[in-house]
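Sanity check

After download, print the first record. It should look like this:
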Amino acid sequence: MATMERPRPAAAPGAVPQVAAATLVADPAAGAVTVAEAPAPAVVAATAPPEPARVVEAAASAPARRATMLTAQERREANMFAELYSILITTEHLEGAFVRGVISNEEYERNCMQILAQFKTLQNGLRDRCPDIRAFIREQGLHCPLAEERLLGTGVAATALFAHGTSTTAGKESLACFKASEGFITLSDALKLNLTAVDELLPLVRDLQASIIGIPNLPPLAGIDRIASWLVTLNGMRASEQLSEGQCRQLGMDVEQAYTALKNWLQEKT
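Expected structure tokens:
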């Protein structure tokens, strides 16, 4: 009995067929050919890969975030903190430009005085929300030592603390010395009249310091630097505050010492 094999038809699309053979059996005695079917192979259905998740559908299924609504008061406070941040950065760049000498003394002093006035106003407005400006600087990760010294340290322009003139005529020098003497006398009289309020003494000390640094070629006289120190002290106090009795006596002594040193220097020059 001879056998023949033939392949089975291809499986339907989408299925992976397993090849199996059908056996043909020839029986000479019976004069017939019978077909012996092999067991049907298992058809493994092709499984489509899962459809990837779509970003849009995932976003749609996620809970939507609600926009933070600020009140009018909160918006004002946020704007004030932003202004404080910008003032710190601006002051740091201004001080750096002054140190490098890329701007004139007049331009520096004009811009510095404006920034100081803005900072004082803003500091008063944020006194309750931000009592410590240095803590705010650390929280924001800022590194602005020059701005800290100018805004929170001296409180006045560098040109108001140090003399910056070296050449002038004799007439201008005499006028500068006269203005300084006038400032010493005015401040001394105010202290003798028991003026102790900061808003009364600060303008007098500021004018005196401005006249002192206006004197060209002024050597470091005894007590002269104390006037600049008092300017920094008064500038850091509130206008409504008053000097104590001990502070007034110390200020009066410093004024007399500096005035005496200035007069002795002028006498030595003549």
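If your output differs, re-run the checksum step. Summary of this record's structure: Residues 72-100 form the longest helix (29 residues).
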